[in-house]
Specification:
The protein is an alpha+beta fold. About 30% of the residues lie in helices and about 30% in strands. The chain contains 13 helices and 23 strands. Strands 3, 7, 8, 9, 10, 11, 12, 13 and 16 form a 9-stranded mixed beta sheet that branches. The protein has a 5-stranded mixed beta sheet with strand order 20-19-21-22-23, sandwiched between helices. The longest helix is centred in the middle third of the chain and has 21 residues. Bound molecules: adenosine-5'-triphosphate (ATP) and magnesium ion (3 copies). One magnesium ion (MG) binds next to strand 13.
């Protein structure tokens, strides 16, 4: 991508409405634009990151055996009347009336709809286990939308729903998502800690929030230091196998959100191993049994011919919120520092003297070589000051900056800067390409 043809509306001033660093940096780097309170347009740079995050989430869901579909954003109120949640959900639900005076709503979540789809087709235990997910926009009319896309009203969520014959197999489904989440957040360069969370009336131990520690987080959380250093399950994890050893290892050290906090248990931990922090909820997994299948009559026939309401769980990831969480975790005074796996581009190619024939030619050659090798390059081919170019590159946080100027070229060298370490090396253009592909 050539910067001269791209749309990257960088802000020089720090927007004063933004209270936290991720929101400020997203606005300054031209990633999002607020259209209404808590409702954002995704500008090209922000949209690229959103898609990268979404793709990692998708790959790990697929690896864990979940199956992707896509449900609509607009739902019928009747579905929610069946589950009893139409009235219970309250004012976070955006209610809409169509031209025929039918009550509709913009989905805040999809338990009802997926249960409706399930019951329309699945009758037998033989079709289970099943896990269906989608990645779709949700709307929740939050009382206090804030922190940019971290607490938006319209936001992108991955929500998966598992269906099993009984609680024991539902536990396997739960464990698969648990492990998938460990891998998902790790691949993005985030340390997300599964913490015991409220289960509501069902009780039990099958609800975890995945939390990123950050001073700007909205929840207060407590954990044992040990959990911060546990190994992440590899890509070769067998999701057909029993995953409970992994889940047990991750649930053994103390880790709980505010609502589930057990002060006595926490105080029993050696003082220097106790972590009290603030956290951002980026995912939430939950077993809720027959809460929806019972009222909505989503039953399956068992091998002995009897019928049972299907056991369900739901598993959410805040895809758009993750952008904010990522920036909270990866930035410095100059801007964002994207982990490679989610970076909007891999390399920023900086032409220090556009119009200079040798520099232009060298840049064009590097650009072509990198693009042909499948490396995503943002080529700053604009005629602006070097200082402004460097500031923009640091702000948007691409992992590598490849700087090309007439002076270096005379000696046959270009400069490669690592955004994260700040390390710069001088090397030949060919060496630079070799390092980047
Ligand atoms: P919160 O406690 O932050 O309000 P929640 O518990 O209401 O979130 P869930 O119903 O568990 O949210 O939804 C699954 C995921 O969707 C959350 O873990 C979070 O990452 C994301 N999410 C929820 N609400 C928002 C929002 N208003 N803006 C952005 N992401 C959100
Ligand atoms: Mg909420
Ligand atoms: Mg919550
Ligand atoms: Mg939650």
């Amino acid at each position: 991508m050539r910067l001269s043809r791209y749309f990257l509306p960088i802000l020089k001033e720090t927007p004063k409405e933004a209270e936290i660093v991720s929101h400020r940096l997203m606005l300054r780097a031209g990633m999002i634009r607020q259209e209404s309170a808590g409702i954002y347009a995704w500008l090209p740079l922000g949209y690229r990151v959103l898609r990268k995050i979404e793709q990692i989430v998708r790959e790990e869901q697929n690896r864990a055996g979940a199956v992707e579909l896509l449900m609509p954003t607009i739902q019928s109120a009747d579905l929610w009347r069946e589950s009893g949640r139409y009235d219970a959900y309250g004012r976070e639900m955006l209610r809409i009336t169509d031209r025929h005076e039918r009550d509709m709503l913009f989905g805040p979540t999809n338990e009802e709809m997926i249960t409706e789809i399930f019951r329309a087709y699945v009758r037998s235990y033989k079709d289970l286990p099943l896990n269906l997910y989608h990645i779709q926009w949700k709307f929740r009319d939050e009382v206090r939308p804030r922190f940019g896309i971290m607490r938006g009203r319209e936001f992108l969520m991955k929500d998966a729903y598992s269906f099993d014959v009984d609680k024991e197999s539902a536990r396997h489904a739960y464990n698969r998502m648990f492990v998938a989440y460990l891998r998902t957040f790790h691949r993005m360069g985030l340390k997300a800690i599964p913490m015991r969370a409220e289960t509501g009336p069902i009780g039990g131990d099958m609800s975890h929030e995945f939390i990123i520690l950050a001073s700007t987080g909205e929840s207060e959380v407590f954990c044992h230091k040990d959990i911060l250093d546990l190994p992440i399950p590899g890509a070769d994890t067998d999701f057909q196998a029993d995953l409970s050893p992994i889940v047990s290892a991750w649930t053994a050290p103390y880790a709980a959100t505010d609502e589930m906090h057990d002060k006595a248990a926490f105080d029993a931990i050696a003082e220097d191993r106790r972590v009290t922090a603030r956290g951002i909820e980026v995912g939430h997994i939950f077993y809720f049994g027959t809460k929806y299948s019972e009222p909505m009559k989503a039953n399956v026939t068992l091998s002995d011919g009897t019928e049972t309401p299907v056991h369900m769980g739901s598993y959410g990831v805040g895809v758009s919120r993750l952008l904010g969480a990522l920036i909270e975790a990866h930035h410095d005074d100059d801007g964002i520092i994207w982990p490679t796996s989610v970076a909007p581009f891999h390399v920023g190619l900086v032409n220090l003297k556009t119009g200079d024939a040798a520099t232009d030619a060298a840049c064009e050659d590097l650009y072509a070589q990198l693009e042909n090798a499948g490396v995503e390059v943002l080529y700053d081919d604009e005629d602006t000051r070097a200082g402004a170019k460097f500031a923009t590159m640091d702000l948007i946080g691409l992992p590598w900056q490849l700087v090309v100027g007439p002076r270096g070229l005379k000696d046959g060298i270009v400069e490669l800067k690592n955004r994260s370490s700040g390390e710069r090396v001088s090397l030949s253009p060919q060496e630079a390409v070799n390092r980047l592909v």
